[in-house]
Design goal:
Elements: E1 58-61, E2 65-74, E3 77-80, H1 81-87, H2 89-95, H3 101-106, E4 110-113, H4 120-135, E5 144-147, H5 159-167, E6 174-177, H6 184-197, E7 203-210, H7 213-223, H8 230-237, E8 245-253, E9 261-270, E10 278-280, E11 287-289, H9 291-311, E12 321-324, H10 329-339, H11 350-353, H12 360-368, E13 377-384, E14 388-395
Parallel strand pairs: 5-6, 5-7, 12-13
Antiparallel strand pairs: 1-9, 2-8, 2-9, 3-4, 7-8, 9-14, 10-11, 13-14
Helix pairs in contact: 4-5, 9-10
Keywords: Acyltransferase, Transferase
GO molecular function, one term: 3-oxoacyl-[acyl-carrier-protein] synthase activity
InterPro entries: ACP_syn_III_C, ACP_syn_III_N, Thiolase-like
């Protein structure tokens, strides 16, 4: 994704209707400090990474990191899926394809776009400012800023530098982008938590802002050519599910913040043989996606990570909330069926926000946080093109 919302799409300014959120169920409070682990098994206690041919997961347990705040910024304009149907009406007629595919197949009624004068990096800065305020942490206390967004206006400098400047962060605060498709924000939390565990920093700010509007415009131009094909419609389908938004989180030392939400650890797994299933170029090139391949291989990657994590000693079968990357109805149904989790414990935001790339999971977590209670357990289930997955447990 590149650039800010260009205003080329007609939007509905009304407030989006939202489905009811599930009420999390109670659970026992998490136990005390857990040692940091880099490597393949929970019993590893060194800070160096170890390879073990018996497992394909990377497992990390954090000993002193907590989530102090998580915030979201919803882009101002509502862009209904029916608007895309209107723009593609002639193409659908020519190819004998029905209207309403985005809502019927993906379950996405609408997504958001930035209003004139707003942009993805403005949104990330607004989310970051709100996260600092919510956490009660001053800008000068931040030792690390990570921007996890896919969207960028230019190859350099990093998006993070503009957000660092906008928030008035100190000169000593390390700042950089961490891009890993839709998994960037989750990866950022892992890196920040590890640096806090190591004693390198006391506080970190993770931010993310997304704006897919240039890809929307490229996809519409491509599909409205007189020679566009059904296959091209399917290749661009995922592009039209994307939405705009921003999120931020403050991570701090658990021993200084007993009120914080303990980040217990995470499991990650790579499936990079599938690197060509979703490729996004600049605004002119757009994004091409093998949606069926992503669903099939992404689901296997997540379930393999899940099953191996349980053999390693993790237990995620009865979490109070499962905050997943927000893609579509079919993806949600597939993960529910594959690992046997309670559908009512999965908050859904894609029907009204669409797939907000790396901001989708933290925005959903920020919404779910409004109903979470101390002692409840949350599993963040991230996945990104490449393919990579990350499963992170937080004790609320």
């Amino acid at each position: 994704m590149t650039g800010a919302h260009s205003g080329g799409c007609r939007v509905d300014q009304r407030t989006a209707a939202r489905p009811s959120r599930p009420t999390p169920r109670g659970a026992a409070a998490a136990s005390g400090p857990v040692p940091t682990i880099f490597g393949s098994h929970p019993h590893h206690t060194t800070s160096s990474r170890r390879h073990d041919s018996l497992t394909s997961n990377s497992s990390i347990r954090h000993r002193n990191s907590s989530l102090l705040s998580v915030t979201r910024v919803e882009a101002e304009e509502v862009l209904p899926s029916s608007w895309f149907d209107d723009q593609l009406a002639d193409t659908y007629r020519r190819l004998r394809m029905p209207r309403g595919l985005l809502e019927r197949l993906a379950g996405i009624r609408e997504r958001r776009g930035w209003a004139g004068g707003s942009s993805f990096d403005d949104g990330a800065a607004r989310a970051g400012r709100a996260a600092l305020e919510q956490a009660g942490v001053a800008p000068e206390q931040i030792g690390l800023l990570i921007n996890g967004s896919v969207t960028r206006d230019n190859f350099e400098p990093a998006v993070a530098v503009g957000i660092h400047h906008a928030l008035g962060l100190p000169r000593h605060a390390l700042n950089f982008d961490m891009t890993n498709a839709c998994l960037g924000f989750v990866n950022g939390i892992t890196v920040a938590s590890s640096m806090i565990d190591a004693g390198a920093i006391d506080y970190a700010l993770i931010v993310c802002g997304e704006d897919p509007s240039p890809w929307h415009e490229t996809a519409l131009r491509m599909l409205n050519r007189p020679d566009s094909t059904r296959d091209e419609v399917l290749t661009q389908f995922a592009t039209l599910t994307l939405g705009s938004g921003a999120a931020a989180a403050v991570i701090g030392r658990a021993d200084r913040h007993p009120e914080g939400h303990r980040i217990l650890g995470s499991v990650s797994r790579a499936g990079t043989e599938h690197k060509d299933l979703c490729i996004g170029g600049d605004a002119g090139q757009g994004m091409a996606t093998d949606a069926t391949g992503l669903l099939t291989h992404g689901l296997k990657l997540v379930t393999d990570a899940w099953e191996e994590a349980h053999r390693e000693g993790w237990d995620w079968t009865d979490m109070d909330a499962y905050v997943t990357h927000q893609i579509s109805t079919s993806h949600t149904n597939a993960i529910v069926d594959a690992v046997g989790i309670d559908r009512d414990r999965i908050p859904l935001t894609f029907p009204y926000w669409g797939n907000v790339a790396a901001a989708a999971l933290p925005m959903t977590l920020a919404l779910q946080a409004e109903t979470l209670e101390p002692g409840q357990r949350v599993l963040c289930m991230g996945v990104g093109s490449g393919l990579n997955t990350g499963l992170m447990e937080i004790a609320w």
